[in-house]
Amino acid sequence: MKHKLLPLSETMHYILLALREPLHGYAVMQKIEKTSEGSVILAAGTLYGAIENLHKHGWIEPVGESGRRKVYMITSEGRNILKMEQNRLLHILSLYERSE
């Protein structure tokens, strides 16, 4: 099954990976900056647009609130997408190992 959002953009990867634990948007931004060692810094508009898109596709869902902030977490469908992407990337990486 080929989905129109696949392959995932770097931003989508980082968001889905961050949301393996429940987080609100600002915490997602901080986590991504940290896990990417500062190479990925998301603007709020980019993050919230991506969150809306991921939610629309059922890959993340709101799981509560922290003050007035919505807290999101990855769904089982989102986990399946991450697994598919992991397999795709592992295959690509394996091509680097092969001799010419």
Describe the structure in your own words.
By secondary structure, the chain is of the alpha+beta class. It has one domain (10-97): Winged helix-like DNA-binding domain superfamily/Winged helix DNA-binding domain (Arc Repressor Mutant, subunit A, Orthogonal Bundle). The chain has four helices and three strands; from the N terminus they run H-E-H-H-E-E-H. It has helices at 10-18, 25-35, 44-56, 76-97, and strands spanning 23-24, 60-66, 69-74. A hairpin with a 2-residue loop joins strand 2 (60-66) and strand 3 (69-74). The longest helix is centred in the last third of the chain and has 22 residues, at 76-97. The radius of gyration is 15 Å and the shape is globular. It starts with 9 loop residues before the first helix and ends with a helix. The model has no long low-confidence stretch (mean pLDDT 93).
| CATH fold topology | Arc Repressor Mutant, subunit A
CATH architecture: Orthogonal Bundle
The CATH C-level name is Mainly Alpha
Total beta strand runs: 3
Based on helices, strands and strand pairing, what is the structural class?
Answer: alpha+beta
Q: Tell me the fraction of residues in β-strands, as a range.
A: 15-25%
The ordered H/E elements are HEHHEEH
Question: What number is the mean pLDDT?
Answer: 93
Task: Measure the end-to-end span.
Answer: 31 Å
Question: Can you tell me the CATH superfamily?
Answer: Winged helix-like DNA-binding domain superfamily/Winged helix DNA-binding domain
Structural domains: how many? 1
Main beta sheet: strand number and arrangement? Answer: 3 strands, antiparallel
Spatial strand arrangement across the major sheet: 1-3-2
Helical coverage, percent range: 55-70%
Helices, by number, come to: 4
Whole-angstrom Rg: 15 Å
Dominant shape: globular
> Uncertain spans, ≥5 residues at pLDDT below 50?
none
